[in-house]
Amino acid sequence: MEYPTILSVTDSELDLNLLLAGITLPSSGAAAIFTGMVRGVTARGEAHATLYLEYEAYVPMAEAKMQQVADEIRQRWPTVEGIAIVQRVGRLYPCTPTVLVACTASHRDTGVFDAARYGIDRLKQIVPVWKKEVGPDGEEWIEGDYLPKPEV
Amino acid sequence: MDVQVLLFATLRERAGRQRSIQVNLPDGATVADLKQAIRQAYPALQASLATVIVSVNHEFAFDPDVLPPDPEVALFPPVSGG
User: Fold this and answer.
1) Are residues B6 and A58, on separate chains, in Cβ contact within 8 Å?
2) Is residue B82 part of a domain?
3) Is B81 among the domain residues?
4) Which of A64, A104, A119, B43 could pair covalently with A28 via S-S, beta carbons 3.0-4.6 A apart?
5) Cα A49-B17-B45 angle, rounded to 5 deg
6) What is the torsional sign of CA B36, B42, B46, B49?
7) Strand order in the sheet with B59-61
8) What is the pLDDT of residues A58-91, one digit of tens each?
9) CATH code for the domain in which residue B13 is found
10) How many domains does chain B have?
11) Which residues of A115-127 are buried (b: 16+ CB within 10 A; e: fewer)?
């Protein structure tokens, strides 16, 4: 059976239940679901408040890189059944889910937690999406710190 | 060849909010040549070029890579999705 893979960049609300249903097979008994949301109050590091985040993506490349992340997950955890990787873009306010990375598997001890963790970490490295943070005192583009290297 | 270069995030804002810029390059030009041409034609982008990421046809590209014919080129800062 072909395992389901859902990859998308969307400006619509993330429907976590629908996405989970889309990657659940009759053989699935476990799902690790990571979702990130806009944090309105940040305590770690330089404490600050956030009014909203403005996300943008280079959509065709983002979808290609999401496919790469899914392929890497399947190589490392062949037990993973379904994979969903979805990034929401546009203006997003605190408490709103912005991203979902979810993996299903037959059982929870198959590496499915690690697979989802790997997926969100890789998305933050290689999927071309950026966010501008807008707070009470102004706005600032957030930049990551990962620079891709040529494959050897 | 004329190459259209898509800009995202800080790169776009520094280029006066243009979504893309155009540079003329000889056939066989590399990514390093592309950056050099942008450095000269768009001084506002100069500071960004040190840590800029270049993609060609949706793959990361590096200084020695030769641009293929009719490439889709983009310039952007390190990504910050999630």
Assistant:
1) yes
2) no
3) no
4) A104
5) 95
6) negative
7) B20-24, B2-7, B73-76, B53-56, B59-61
8) 999 999 999 999 999 999 999 999 999 999 999 9
9) 3.10.20.30
10) 1
11) bbebbbebbbbbb
Q: Is residue B19 part of a domain?
A: yes
Using the Cβ of A151 and the Cβ atoms of chain B, whether some distance falls under 8 Å is answered with no
Distance CA B76, CA B51 (A): 9
Query: H or E stretch including A13?
Result: none
Residue whose structure tokens are 């609300």:
A13
User: What pLDDT does A151 receive?
Assistant: 83
Tokens of B68: 């293929």
| CA distance linking residue A103 with residue A113, whole number of Å | 8
Tell me if B77 and A125 make a contact (CB, 8 A cut-off). no
Average pLDDT over residues A122-137: 98
Domain limits, chain A: 5-136
CA-nearest residue of chain B to A86? B82
What gap in Å lies between CA A134 and CA B60, rounded to an integer? Answer: 29
Which residues pair with residue B30 across a beta bridge? Answer: B66
- Nearest by CB: B79 against A120, A132, A144: A144
pTM (global) more than 0.90 = yes
Contact yes or no for A100/A16 (Cβ under 8 A): yes
Q: In this predicted model, what pLDDT tens digit does every residue of B32-71 receive, in sequence order?
A: 999 999 999 999 999 999 899 999 999 999 999 999 999 9
Nearest CA in chain A to B54: A148
- Candidates B13, B74, B80; nearest CB to A58: B74
